[in-house]
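sry for the spam today, last one i promise. struct tokens for design, 342 residues
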């Protein structure tokens, strides 16, 4: 889809969505956001406009499950494509609240497909996740490796992939890209946009940022007895701006193939928790207190992407390194100690 287009971004006020909106606006696309602010705030939308120098065309505070509200959004605009970020994403919470996760993530996706179909919009980029691979017994992972989701969050993403793929198969006008992100971290280099977790962060990077800021006393490193070089968990961290660029490029490739295509978005490089701590210490110039504790239930030793397929297809690669991820995350933390203003 070369040239400028009008893109509906669900979950556009969230971590990855907000960075993607800036990337789209910076490249001349028009953006419409739908978000219910269940894990974000209107402050993020103000920052999108500030960073990009222009605002989204429209922002709707609406729940994807509110089919009437969603239909009204589609009636108001003529979309060239949809990027679907809106979902619940906390793995631990999904184990406690499976119905809520299936309702929001699967139900939200089918409600969106309904609205797209009703309004003749047939091009979708879907946020999938490396979590669909489950307990991978080898790395790096290619898209052809078997899925084995091990919790309701991951299962919801896997189910959505199946549903979107089937819709594309049955309705030949539909095309979709499912992007399986590995571990997006970091922030916009301006320090104005970043990740604003609610409560104590689940994920290691925002947790590290809050330890460095003195809001949390120390990082608990979940196990040093994994089968990895230093015993701590290895992940494929990638900069959120690389993820955002990946979505902008994806829009240009939605028509390359019929049906749904799955791509990993990762760097292909694994980093251990202790290596991440060291990178963050260099970025913030302060010691990071940590202690080794037991493994977190359900954690796998190593998850690393093989990003060859997406590089071959689109010439996209992640270009920002661990230093940039840590420095940008730290800048955002320092400039916005309490997140976005209300
Ligand atoms: P996020 O929570 O920051 O953003 C999701 C946004 O969707 C939030 O603004 C939230 O308010 C909104 N939302 C949730 N339910 C909604 C609903 N029913 N109706 C309307 N809006 C709703 O999460 P994120 O990290 O930006 O993740 C974006 C997507 O990427 C998600 O689908 C997530 O599963 C996927 N993903 C994230 C990661 C990660 O590590 N962050 C990794 C792989 C995949
Ligand atoms: C990374 C590493 C932990 C916190 C999650 C989701 C996955 C995907 C990406 C959405 C692991 C260790 C963590 C802490 C630690 N998201 N750790 N102390 O679990 O790889 O992936 O985000 O799709 O579905 O599960 O990310 O940041 O939680 O953990 O030692 O306080 O850091 O054990 O090795 P994870 P994470």
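last one done:
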């Amino acid at each position: 889809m070369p040239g400028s287009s009008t893109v509906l971004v669900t979950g556009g006020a969230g971590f990855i969505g907000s960075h993607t909106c800036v990337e789209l606006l910076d490249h001349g696309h028009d953006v419409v956001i739908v978000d219910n602010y269940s894990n974000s705030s209107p402050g993020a939308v103000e920052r999108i406009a500030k960073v990009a120098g222009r605002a989204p065309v429209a922002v709707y505070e609406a729940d994807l499950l509110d089919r009437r509200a969603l239909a009204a959004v589609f009636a108001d605009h003529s979309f060239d494509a949809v990027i679907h970020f809106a979902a619940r994403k906390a793995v631990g919470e999904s184990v406690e609240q499976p119905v809520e996760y299936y309702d929001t993530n699967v139900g939200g996706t089918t409600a969106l497909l309904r609205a797209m179909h009703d309004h003749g919009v047939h091009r979708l980029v879907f946020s999938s996740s490396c979590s669909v691979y489950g307990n991978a017994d080898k790395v790096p992972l290619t898209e052809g490796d078997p899925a084995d989701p091990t919790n309701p969050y991951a299962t919801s993403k896997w189910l959505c992939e199946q549903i979107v793929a089937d819709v594309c198969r049955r309705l030949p006008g539909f095309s979709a890209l499912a992007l399986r992100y590995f571990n997006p971290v970091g922030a916009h280099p301006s320090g104005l946009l970043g990740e604003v977790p609610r409560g104590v962060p689940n994920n290691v990077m925002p947790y590290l940022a809050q330890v460095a800021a003195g809001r949390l006393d120390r990082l608990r490193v979940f196990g040093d007895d994994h089968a990895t070089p230093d015993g701590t968990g290895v992940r494929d961290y990638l900069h959120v701006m690389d993820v955002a660029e990946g979505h902008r490029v994806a829009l240009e490739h939605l028509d390359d193939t019929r049906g749904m295509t799955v791509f990993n978005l990762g760097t292909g490089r694994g980093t251990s928790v202790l290596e991440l701590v060291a990178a963050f210490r260099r970025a913030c110039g302060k010691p990071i207190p940590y202690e080794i504790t037991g493994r977190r239930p359900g954690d796998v030793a190593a998850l690393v992407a093989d990003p060859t397929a997406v590089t071959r297809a689109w010439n996209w690669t992640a270009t920002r390194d661990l230093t940039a991820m840590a420095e940008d995350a730290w800048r955002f933390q320092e400039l916005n100690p309490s997140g976005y203003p209300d």
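The chain has eleven helices and 14 strands. ok im logging off now
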